[in-house]
Structure formats: structure tokens, C-alpha cells
Design goal:
The chain has about 450 residues and is of the alpha/beta class. The chain is elongated, with a radius of gyration of 34 Å.
């Protein structure tokens, strides 16, 4: 036996026979790498045709062109009298123009009287302008047909064969809403990608659209995991805490534009978690969980999710929020799932950085990220090496400064509720002197 030959210095020879090589250290992902990986796996939801009110909050998947004019006809913008302007030249309180009233025109009227010389027609706001009329005299510019010559405050009931006294000249075209003055036929009124709010829906209705093609709002199911969680309002026993994450994340998903369903807290029981997931998959475009993604002995989330395949649990170079999970339940065509840490601040910051952009992408929004500005921080900051730190802060647009709120710990929900931004400290920076410029993620924009 030639021991010197057998005991070589190759890596295999340095291990005991049959022993597995030492596992490689897990990869640490950067925030940008993880975000890019997540966003590469999702896209806008398929477009659907919806009734107008069902489309609120969605984004158009088509340009909308008006088929007709808006207003569709010349109409009065005032209660008053439709008349020929030449008949009011030189009219005053002392020498009014006296005109014969040939009819009354209400909004929605079909048959219209013709207005000839020396004539007028009583007209209501929104009613079509009769033929022959060139303008509308507001009722306050007349005596309202009372025969007193005194300016009227409002229209009175119709009186057959009445006369009206006009107390001042009326300019040609006065108080008339011209056909097409708001929107002309063939005009593009809304562009694809526009978010549909109350005014946009009103415009669609005004031009006669009953349905519209949109990217639907994603349905997001939110659940927390942990046997220590109890519902707010219930007694909190030893070792227990109220479930706040499911409320925070559900509200955040709604604010981002999703239709969010809060499932609540699921105990650390693999069978129970699996049953909840199976029950929710049918109504979810996206599932968001919090808790159970670290290395604890009772973290069953990874155990359950990994049975579906397509899930990846990783560690990021960030604080807070180092452990993250992402994948699809049911393979490449399944429902995307983001598993966030359980600490409240970690969960919320992870949502803002990763989940919100996913929701915005599913919506088809162009602005998937929160705005970022530069600001001066009067307070010196410290950050762990190799981690991108996200501190909570209060931003002042007036003087371009930002102040930290609370500490860096990931359980400080009181400080989180007072913050309106995140202060970003890069991975390669450990100390920032007072007065340094920092990137600030605005949370209220």
C-alpha cells in the first residue's frame, strides 16, 4: 500500500470515504436581483370587458374614441329665454325689449317652437336651443313674464301667450353650450393605460359607452401564519400577539389597486395551511403570506409550499426583510405567491419593495414603483455592512430633508405608523455623517 500516493491533496481525498462534501454557503440575493426575478415571472392580467362600475380602479386596455359629439346638440346653460339677439339691442330697465313668448322648452324636449323676430321661448337648463334663437337671456335679465319690468329671481309657471321684458342686451351665442364643444365626434377621449376613476367613468357614460375593455384588478389573498397570532379584539394569552400583518398587507394591497381578501391567521400546522391554500387558490391571482420563511423549528410555510413545487426561499442583502420566498403554487402556470417575513415592519417593507410592484404590473400600470427623491438627513446614520437598510422616516418636501422615525428594529409598528417614507442606505455604506444626501422612497405618493 502506498500511503503517500493514496493520501493525495485533492479535495475528494480530504474527506472521509463516503462522506458528502460540505454544502456551499447559500447565495445572498440583492434587493434588485430579487425584484427583477419576481417581476420577470408576472405580467398584466388578460384584458376583459366590464360594465362601467365594475371597471372602477382598472386600467384601460384600449383607446376610447367618441362616436358622437358631446354635447350632442346646442343647449341652454341657463334657465331663461331663447331669443334673437337683434331684438335686445339697447334694452335697459327703463326701456326693455318686450317679446312674445311662443312656447316652453324643457330638458328632453323633442318638438321645438321656432323663434322669429320679436319672439322668445322659455327654456330650461340643458334644453335644446330652438330654431331661430341665437342666444339665451338668463331669467335674472328679464322680468320672468310678470309684466312688472322688475328682474325675476327664478322661472315661474308657464303662462299662455305671455310676454317677457328683457332688461339688457344679449350677446350672440350667450349662455349656449354648443354641440361638440366638450368632445367632438372622432376624438380620442381616453388612452390605453388610463386608470378609471369616477370622472373617467362619467365620461364613458356621457359618450354612450356601457362597457369597456380593461386590465382587471388582481385578486390578492392575504394570510398570516403563526400559532401565536390571535384576532384583534380577542383575549391575548401568554406568548400570544394580535395579528396585525394581515390587516396591514390587505390594506396595502387595496391601496395598490388590488381586490384584496384577508384570510387572517393560520396556525403552524401543515395540514391546516395546506387546506387554506387549496380553498383560496380558486379566487386568487396572487397570494401573499407573512411569517414562516426563516429557519425556525416550527416554520411550516416552507414545508408546505415546497410540496407544490416551483417555490424558492432565499436570503437577501437587506435589513429588515432578509428571508423571502417566491414562486408559483402549481408550477409555471400556477398562482404566484410571495412569502414575506413575519415581523410587522419586515412584512410591510417587503410588500412595498416586492409585492406592490407585482400588483401594479398585473394592473398594467406604467408606474409600478414608488417615487424616489433625494433628501438631506440631519441625523447621522449607521448601517450593517453588506445590507441595504430601509429606515422609516418623515420627509419634508418644503426643505428637502428627511428625519428617521424610531429605530431599525423590525417590530416597531408605532414608528412605522408615523412614517411617510423609507430612507435607503446602500449595501456598501456603514456610516453616514449628519447632513448626508440619501435616497427616500415616498410612501404617500
Amino acid at each position: 500500500m502506498t500511503g503517500s500516493t493514496e493520501h493525495s491533496t485533492t479535495p475528494a481525498a480530504c474527506c472521509d470515504a463516503g462522506a458528502d462534501p460540505a454544502p456551499a454557503a447559500p447565495r445572498l440575493w440583492t434587493v434588485d436581483e430579487h425584484l427583477a426575478d419576481v417581476l420577470s415571472a408576472v405580467g398584466p392580467l388578460p384584458a376583459i370587458e366590464l360594465q362601467l362600475l365594475d371597471a372602477q380602479g382598472c386600467r384601460l386596455d384600449e383607446d376610447v374614441v367618441a362616436d358622437g359629439d358631446l354635447p350632442p346638440f346646442d343647449n341652454s346653460s341657463m334657465d331663461g329665454y331663447a331669443l334673437r339677439t337683434a331684438d335686445t339691442t339697447g334694452a335697459t330697465d327703463a326701456y326693455p325689449s318686450v317679446l312674445s313668448v311662443v312656447g316652453d322648452i324643457a330638458a328632453g324636449a323633442g318638438e321645438l317652437p321656432r323663434v322669429g323676430p320679436g319672439q322668445a321661448a322659455r327654456i330650461m337648463t340643458g334644453a335644446p336651443l330652438p330654431p331661430g334663437a341665437r342666444a339665451v337671456a338668463p331669467v335674472e335679465w328679464t322680468d320672468g313674464g310678470t309684466g312688472t319690468g322688475v328682474a325675476a329671481a327664478a322661472m315661474t309657471a308657464p303662462v299662455p301667450d305671455e310676454e317677457v321684458r328683457v332688461l339688457r342686451p344679449v350677446a350672440d351665442g350667450a349662455h349656449i353650450r354648443r354641440r361638440g364643444s366638450d368632445v367632438a365626434a372622432g376624438t380620442k377621449v381616453l388612452e390605453a393605460g388610463t386608470r378609471l376613476g369616477p370622472t373617467q367613468l362619467g365620461l364613458l357614460a356621457a359618450i354612450g359607452r356601457a362597457t369597456v375593455k380593461v386590465r382587471p384588478r388582481p385578486r390578492v389573498v392575504v394570510l398570516s401564519t403563526g400559532s401565536e397570532l390571535v384576532q384583534p379584539g380577542e383575549p391575548v394569552g401568554p406568548g400570544q400577539i394580535a395579528d396585525s400583518n394581515s390587516f396591514t398587507l390587505t390594506a396595502a394591497a387595496q391601496e395598490a389597486g388590488a381586490i384584496a381578501y384577508r384570510v387572517g391567521a393560520v396556525p403552524d400546522d401543515a395540514d391546516r395551511l395546506r387546506a387554506v391554500l387549496e380553498d383560496q387558490l380558486g379566487r386568487a391571482d396572487l397570494i401573499v403570506t407573512s411569517g414562516g420563511v426563516s429557519v425556525g423549528a416550527y416554520d411550516v410555510v416552507k414545508e408546505v409550499f415546497e410540496t407544490y413545487g416551483g417555490m424558492d426561499f432565499r436570503k437577501l442583502r437587506m435589513q429588515p426583510g432578509k428571508p423571502q420566498g417566491f414562486g408559483r403554487i402549481g408550477g409555471a402556470s400556477g398562482v404566484p405567491l410571495l412569502a414575506l417575513p413575519g415581523n410587522p415592519v419586515s412584512a410591510y417593507i417587503s410588500f412595498e419593495l416586492f409585492v406592490r410592484p407585482v400588483i401594479r404590473t398585473m394592473l398594467g400600470a406604467a408606474d409600478v414603483h414608488r417615487p424616489v427623491v433625494r433628501a438631506l438627513c440631519p441625523t447621522a446614520l449607521r448601517s450593517p455592512a453588506g445590507r441595504r437598510q430601509f429606515l422609516r422616516g418623515r420627509y419634508s418636501a418644503a426643505d428637502g430633508t428627511v428625519e428617521p422615525v424610531g429605530g431599525a428594529e423590525s417590530h416597531l409598528v408605532g414608528a412605522l405608523a408615523r412614517a411617510d417614507c423609507l430612507i435607503t442606505v446602500p449595501e456598501d455604506v456603514t456610516d453616514l455623517p449628519a447632513g448626508s444626501a440619501v435616497d427616500v422612497v415616498l410612501l404617500d405618493s
